[in-house]
Design brief:
Length: 326
């Protein structure tokens, strides 16, 4: 089931195009990661999807409702946590969440019970009577999540939910997001690539306002792996290794790496057209009295893929210098 449909979305600020004919769909029941460098258009896109900003052109449908022509119906389907949570520091946690419930027009009879349920869900019951300004960064993020969850929307959108948190708080928020995904579709933007690969079912990478990749973490690695790289260590000498490698097909190039293995030769081998030649390598070297003591396929990390897809030229860096980060 398609919950969000974005079609040819454009947002311009004068001559600057922040979002450039962006199109994608979000299906029910998954955690989506929205990645991109500063200034790529992530926050702008999220603000348009949630109705905080108007698009210059294009269509955004939330659960079948056009965000422009049916804003109230569309917004009922979304809970939003901006990068800076919209909190009132002089309210207690309970007062603030009750205020949010009123804004979202929850039936009066349901408000107290739902607030209690949401506080238990994000584990903030023990600070319900404390002023928000006296809470730690981690607890304020939890309160921000609680306001997004109130009303039990189908979709929860989180903009950089882990920025400024310490490692313990990041783990706690990560586990909380996983629990929320059991009943909600989650979209989150983040610069912490390891977190995105750990937590997300699907990743969308945006660069210069355009979608440059959209797939699962494993699918992105397959997509970017146009050749196979093998790291292997054998016992013997380089001259003999050169002779053996010259007899094996589909090798694009190879190089020698440093190794601490006594009498060992470490090779980094690149093959053509993503062909896996590990079996040929193992058999051929062993038959030529050069035992293989280690062999592994080198996988591109999500960081490698991100940098490759969002790489900018020096000229582009000069053009974007001084632009306000999102």
């Amino acid at each position: 089931m398609i919950l969000i449909k974005v079609e040819n979305l454009v947002k311009k600020y004068g001559d600057h195009v922040a979002v450039d004919h962006l199109s994608f769909e979000v299906e029910k029941g998954q955690i989506y990661g929205f990645l991109g460098p500063n200034g790529a258009g992530k926050s702008t896109t999220m603000n348009i999807m949630t109705g905080y900003l108007a698009a210059s052109d294009g269509l955004v449908e939330i659960n079948g409702h056009d965000i422009l022509t049916e804003p109230e119906e569309a917004k009922k389907c979304i809970g939003y946590l901006p990068e800076i949570p919209p909190l009132y520091p002089d309210m207690t946690v309970w007062e603030y969440l009750y205020f949010v419930a009123e804004l979202k027009k929850l039936p009066k009879a349901e408000r107290k019970d739902q607030i209690q349920e949401v506080m238990e869900m994000v584990e903030i019951e023990d600070v319900s009577e404390r002023l928000i300004k006296n809470l730690s960064k981690g607890y304020r993020q939890r309160v921000g999540l609680a306001q997004a969850i109130i009303g039990y929307p189908d979709i929860i959108i989180l903009d950089e939910p882990m920025v400024g948190l310490d490692p313990k708080q990041i783990i706690e928020i990560r586990e909380l997001i996983k629990r929320l995904s059991e009943n909600h579709t989650i979209i989150l933007s983040s610069h912490i690539l390891s977190e995105v690969s750990t937590i997300c079912d699907h990743i969308m990478i945006i660069s210069k306002g355009k979608l440059v990749a959209s797939d699962s973490p494993a699918g992105l690695q397959r997509l970017m792996r146009k050749s196979t790289e093998v790291d292997m260590t054998v016992l013997g000498n380089k001259e003999k290794a050169d002779k053996i490698l010259s007899e094996i097909e589909h090798i694009q190039s190879y190089s020698y790496e440093e190794t601490s293995e006594e009498n060992g030769v470490r090779l980094r081998i690149l093959t053509e057209n993503n062909i896996d030649i590990r079996k040929d390598l193992s058999v051929t070297f062993t038959n030529n009295d050069m035992p293989v003591i280690a062999m592994s396929r080198v996988e591109k990390s999500l960081e490698d893929i991100f940098l490759q897809l969002t790489e900018t030229t020096p000229e582009e860096e000069v053009e974007t210098a001084g632009e306000e980060e999102e």
